[in-house]
Amino acid sequence: MKKFGIGDFLSDGFRFSTKPYSRAVILGVLFLLSFLIVPVFLVLGYVYRCIRRSLEGEDSLPEYGEWGRMFVDGVKLFVAYLILLIPVALVSFAVSWGSIGLGVIPNPFAIISVMAAALTVSFVIALIISIYLFMAIPYVVHTGKISSVFEYREIFDRIKRFGAGRYIAVVIVTMIMAWILNLIGGLIPVIGVVLISPIALLLLTRVQAMVFKETST
């Protein structure tokens, strides 16, 4: 398989995310219905399906259907994400409450310092976990097992095979692009969420899958 550059990954991701665009719009509608909870798992289930189909060589968005299976796959991804994101919440909580125990909170300047420290530590941990999950999630889809998220040696071996520096660059640029798309989508109430925000998620999903796929050859 030919090695992609960052531009190649992004162009392929954008093509995939809009092929056909109507399926991306359906995903956007599910976004809007996320307050009903169930659609959240359907969105994640569709992400799971997109990754699996990409690994199988598909170059267009998969059809909807088999909603029960999609829901179960969504639960798998939700649990995989939750397991690794819990530490971010725990660290923030520990830093804040640890400072309370030291009696620094009554000082308003100390409060700001503590909050800044908690946010900084949480951000750094969240970034590290996001970089790890970028490879770990496709691996979970590849094996079909949630426990695969803990196969650190295999995941880090794949990152090394891809090239650590190259991998981090692809991850960060892709996340920035997805963030920009989400920002634009959020500035246009309802319509932006339906028409633009799904592209951000599908772009991220496709690039993840293709990065993982390159490490399988």
Tell how many strands the DSSP assignment holds: 0
Coarse structural class: mainly alpha
- Spatial separation of the terminal alpha carbons: 7 Å
Shape: globular
Biggest β-sheet, characterized? none
Summarize the helix and strand pattern as letters.
HHHHHHHHH
Unreliable sequence segments: none
**What is the number of independent domains?**
1
Q: How would you describe this protein?
A:
With 217 residues, the protein is mainly alpha-helical. It has one domain. The protein is 79% helix and 0% strand. It contains nine helices and no strands. Helix 4 packs antiparallel against helix 5 and helix 7 (164-187) packs antiparallel against helix 9 (197-214).
Provide key terms for this protein.
mainly alpha; 79% helix; single chain; 217 residues
Summarize the structure.
Helices cover 79% and strands 0% of the residues.
Write the layout of secondary structure elements.
Layout: H1 6-17, H2 21-32, H3 38-55, H4 67-101, H5 108-143, H6 152-162, H7 164-187, H8 191-195, H9 197-214
Helix pairs in contact: 1-9, 2-9, 3-4, 3-9, 4-5, 5-6, 5-9, 7-9
